[in-house]
Design a protein that fits this description.
The protein has two domains: 118 residues, no CATH class; 183 residues, no CATH class. β7 and β8 form a beta hairpin. α4 packs across α5, α6 packs antiparallel against α9 and α8 packs antiparallel against α9. Strands 1, 2, 3, 4, 5 and 6 form a six-stranded mixed β-sheet that branches. A three-stranded mixed β-sheet has the order 7-8-9. Helix content is 52%, strand content 16%. With 356 residues, it is of the alpha+beta class.
Length: 356
């Protein structure tokens, strides 16, 4: 009887284990899905498309690649490498902003190639992007095994360069500042030439430090305010608008800049501050040289403007001098920023070097 009782208990225990087995089985690993980058490429990037769009330029023995998505914020590029006698897969981790930048490169590959040829800083930034993306290849994805499934993507219209939102405001700033300076220079010169007229000569008396009396002749001028300020303000505004439009065109062709994680700001700050002093000296010198004679319109050693007692007609020259000061400070900032980025690139390369 005792043996029969043990047998029944064993049978019940076996049935209980079999009943609970499906509930305790490990959850199935989520299957990755293929991300369709653009209609121009499709689901898979082959060698011809890789060379045509300059994708993954640092990966030797590239055969083809696909971008995979798993639950979570990251994506992975599965790249198949083909050597003379074998093939293997490697994986690159891609963040969402990296994926959008790759799509931007595909959509605007023509303007991107032109920008690389004409702007060395742009080319360096793009090279840094690919170096960072391809710098740490993985042998496998975090979750395996997997069966690739294709997820269709709605057709995406390729935006033209003129339709996309500007990726930066650097060129708008630079060209607006340059246009304002040139406009104030031209406006002040034209305003002085057509708006300031000679009226008469006036003899004045004075006493020198030794008590001797002497006379001197003063050339007196008058200002036609509507003509003077119309030319000065109109040409300054026109220069600013034209500069902004030119800069906006360049900004719309530029890639979004990516700042390295460890990029400092010490050099750009120091260079900008250091450039302010020579900028002030040069801007003030320009004001003194051009303002006293109103761009050479006032002739003679002693000149006066009888209806401009406050000297407001010097403002266009002052604005040009101010633009010169700001321009020099901006140049210093740009130089410092280039040094900061170069140092950040060296630090990134050192960190990715073997043994670090």
């Amino acid at each position: 009887m005792q043996v029969v009782e043990y047998t029944r208990r064993a049978e019940l225990l076996l049935l209980l284990v079999l009943a609970l087995a499906p509930a305790t089985a490990p959850a199935q690993t989520p299957e990755p899905t293929v991300i369709r980058l653009r209609d121009a490429i499709g689901d898979t990037i082959d060698r011809a498309e890789r060379d045509s769009f300059d994708l993954f330029p640092n990966t030797a023995d590239f055969q083809y690649a696909a971008v995979l998505a798993l639950p979570g914020p990251e994506f992975f590029a599965r790249v198949t490498l083909a050597s003379a006698d074998s093939t293997r897969n490697i994986f690159f981790r891609i963040m969402p902003n990296d994926l959008e930048r790759i799509r931007f490169l595909i959509d605007n590959h023509g303007s991107v190639a032109e920008q690389q040829r004409t702007d060395s800083t742009y080319a360096q930034a793009l090279a840094s992007f690919w170096n960072t993306l391809e710098g740490s290849p993985l042998r496998r994805m975090p979750r395996e095994p997997f069966i690739v499934q294709t997820v269709p993507q709605a057709p995406t219209r390729t935006a033209t360069v003129g339709e996309q939102e500007p990726a930066t405001s650097q060129h708008r700033y630079d060209y607006t500042l340059l246009g304002t300076g040139l406009g104030s220079l031209a406006g002040g010169y034209v305003g002085s030439r057509v708006g300031i007229d000679y009226v008469r000569s006036q003899t004045k008396s004075a006493v020198d430090a030794c008590g001797y009396s002497y006379t001197y002749t003063v050339n007196v001028y008058s200002v036609n305010y509507p003509v003077f300020w119309g030319a000065a303000c109109g040409m300054t505004a026109a220069g600013s608008i034209v500069g902004y439009m030119i800069g906006d065109g360049y900004d719309r062709k530029a890639l979004p800049s990516q700042m390295p994680a460890d990029e400092g700001k010490s050099w750009r700050t120091c260079c900008a501050i250091g450039s302010v002093v020579p900028g002030i000296l040069l801007g003030t010198g320009f004001l003194l040289v051009t303002g006293i004679k109103r761009y050479g319109k006032l002739e003679g050693d002693y000149t006066e403007i009888d209806n401009d007692p406050d000297g407001l007609t010097i403002l266009p020259m002052a604005l040009t001098g101010f633009c010169i000061t700001v321009e020099l400070a901006t140049i210093g900032y740009r130089i410092g920023r280039a040094i900061d980025r170069r140092n950040a690139g060296k630090a990134e390369a050192k960190r990715r070097a073997p043994g670090h």
